[in-house]
Design goal:
62 residues; mainly alpha; 2 helices
Length: 62
């Protein structure tokens, strides 16, 4: 039962990390753009899928 809860927790953290990365990429591009078009969701998804989350470390947040 603990293994299942651990896997669910891992999947949740992975999903949240992907969402945070997508938000950061979107915001970074928004700040860097002046007159260009903002990136599409497909472009953001392609950049997020290229990230290697296996080297990321979780940081406790208060």
């Amino acid at each position: 039962m603990q293994i299942r809860a651990g896997k669910a927790n891992l999947h949740t953290r992975y999903r949240l990390a992907k969402q945070a990365a997508a938000r950061a990429i979107r915001e970074n591009k928004r700040l860097g753009l002046s007159e260009a078009e903002p990136p599409t969701d497909q472009e953001i998804a392609a950049e997020v899928s290229a990230l290697d989350f296996s080297h990321w470390k979780s940081v406790p947040v208060a």
